[in-house]
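User: Could you go from structure to sequence for me? I need the amino acid at each position, not a summary. Structure tokens:
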């Protein structure tokens, strides 16, 4: 297989750096984010076809301004500077940057003056996202201005001979109408074929795992049943077969059918050494009478590590620990920008350290969530598993308000199954990003047949969201709500009332605990 074509993005701390990586990958070209101070040698070693310099909050005129290795400009590959990246290019190559008379922020009309290269196929004027206090006043030698705005005479610049470009605006954000054209033009100038696929990624990742683990090496993976760890398991299985051991700790708070599906998939479809551990008794015992949400989470996290450790010790020493860390975790934790922060995965806590592993395998650490799902499909994991909605590590235990016991968990599990079934039946599962039921601590009076009841209230929680940081409550059609409500009170014992949560995040969180 020919080597994967890559674009390197140097990160100057801009809030949109991840988006640049995404946009490049959407054009089917693999991209990697490196810290701004990566040396030209380091960059050359990974053979990129082009380099993009990101935006960033600093001023290039400040004494301690972050700078890239100036040799980046002589690597012999095209360079595109975005916002700070453009100003830095001007500054390092002999141009002049100064404070703008008027700060530009928001969607600004940009007029294209030269559409021969990076601005090819752009409209004469298009609306682009700007956020800058400084701007290029004089282009470096060899460059000429190729776009302007009302307040920014050099909104883009080009050196056609050396293939170095700069744009003051942000083509990577969706508020820039034709931003994708610029990214695509740059990739074209770099000579990228745009043929990067998940199948190709899978091949490279499998080869890399084989190379790391060797002919004899063994790997331990904590399978949570979530998308990331399942895709990681499938990938590693393809690389080393049953030298991969997966330990699946069932804490008793999984959704209906979930443990069975994971067991089925990893004993039949991907027959790894699969060790399911039913630890529900221990978890329930330790949570007895505990009502504080944080305390519940802490106990579950602690128990998880204890159970996993005990099982791992029974297995004897394995060589590597694998986990399903994904790219946003890497970028957000600062690892991609060179800061030495190791973020503990929320589902496996500090497991590798606890178990004495120093060798980690993280085959998804360069992928975004939707790419992980695409990879899962490519590898042949079941669609339902791959498209699972997010599920918190502590599971249904934090969807039972207050103290947890098996009966209450059974109620929330049964009502959740009905909700999921009906949302799917109504064809809404692609539109609502997360939906579940909550067993509220409330009991109320009802009437069933001729009997007075005094039973539990279940809440329906359904949200739409881009990033789970903010969310809106989903407008499930009332007819669907009616069916869900009727089925829950009819089919789930001890529930006589169903309510709908109509709160946004903020101020509420998505989960109730
Ligand atoms: P909140 O409730 O904070 O949830 O609005 C935001 C998203 O995070 C999920 N969540 C968790 N995920 N471990 C996880 O892996 C956890 O402890 C956890 N708590 C909340 C939640 O389901 C939602 O998608």
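Assistant: Here is the amino acid at each position, in order:
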């Amino acid at each position: 297989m020919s080597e994967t074509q890559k674009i390197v993005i140097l990160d100057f701390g801009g809030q949109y750096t991840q988006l640049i990586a995404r946009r490049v990958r959407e054009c089917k070209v693999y991209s990697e984010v490196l810290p701004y101070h990566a040396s030209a040698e380091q960059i050359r070693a990974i053979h990129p076809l082009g380099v993009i310099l990101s935006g960033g909050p600093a001023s290039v005129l400040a004494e301690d301004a972050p700078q890239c290795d100036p040799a980046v400009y002589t690597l012999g590959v095209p360079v595109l500077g975005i916002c700070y990246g453009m100003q830095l290019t001007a500054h390092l190559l002999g141009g002049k940057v100064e404070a703008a008379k008027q700060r530009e922020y928001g969607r600004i009309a940009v007029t294209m003056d030269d559409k021969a290269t990076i601005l090819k196929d752009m409209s004469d004027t298009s609306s682009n996202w700007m956020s800058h206090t400084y701007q290029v006043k004089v282009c470096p030698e060899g460059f000429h201005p190729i776009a302007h705005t009302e307040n920014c005479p050099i909104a883009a610049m080009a050196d056609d001979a050396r293939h170095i470009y700069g744009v003051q605006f942000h083509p990577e954000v969706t508020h820039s109408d034709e931003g994708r054209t610029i990214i695509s033009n740059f990739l074209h100038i770099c000579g990228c074929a745009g043929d990067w696929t998940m199948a190709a990624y899978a091949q490279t990742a499998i080869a890399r795992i084989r190379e790391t683990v060797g002919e004899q090496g063994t790997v331990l993976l904590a399978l949570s049943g979530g998308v990331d760890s399942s895709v990681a398991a499938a990938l590693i299985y393809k690389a080393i077969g049953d030298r991969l051991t997966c330990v699946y700790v069932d804490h008793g708070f999984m959704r209906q059918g979930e443990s069975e599906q994971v067991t089925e998939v990893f004993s039949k479809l991907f027959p790894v050494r699969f060790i399911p551990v039913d630890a529900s008794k221990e978890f329930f015992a330790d949570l007895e009478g505990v009502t504080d949400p944080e305390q519940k989470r802490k106990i579950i996290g602690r128990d998880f590590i204890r159970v996993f450790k005990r099982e791992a010790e029974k297995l004897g020493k394995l060589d590597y620990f694998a986990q399903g860390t994904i790219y946003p975790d890497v970028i957000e934790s600062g690892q991609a920008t060179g800061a030495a922060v190791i973020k503990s995965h929320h589902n496996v806590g500090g497991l590798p350290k606890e178990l004495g592993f120093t060798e980690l395998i993280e085959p998804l650490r360069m992928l975004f969530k939707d790419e992980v799902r695409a990879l899962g499909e490519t590898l042949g994991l079941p669609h339902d598993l791959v498209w699972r909605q997010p599920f918190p590590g502590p599971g249904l235990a934090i969807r039972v308000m207050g103290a947890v016991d098996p009966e209450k968990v059974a109620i929330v599990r049964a009502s959740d199954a009905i909700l999921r079934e009906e949302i799917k039946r109504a064809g809404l599962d692609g539109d609502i990003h997360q939906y579940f039921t909550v067993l509220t601590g409330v009991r109320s009076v009802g009437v069933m047949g001729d009997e007075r009841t005094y039973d539990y209230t279940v809440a329906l929680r359904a949200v739409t969201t881009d990033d789970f940081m903010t969310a809106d409550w989903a407008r499930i059609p009332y007819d669907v709500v009616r069916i869900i409500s009727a089925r829950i009170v009819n089919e789930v014992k001890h529930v006589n009332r169903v309510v709908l949560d109509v709160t946004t995040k903020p101020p509420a969180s998505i989960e109730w605990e």
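One structural detail worth keeping in mind: The longest strand covers residues 96-112.
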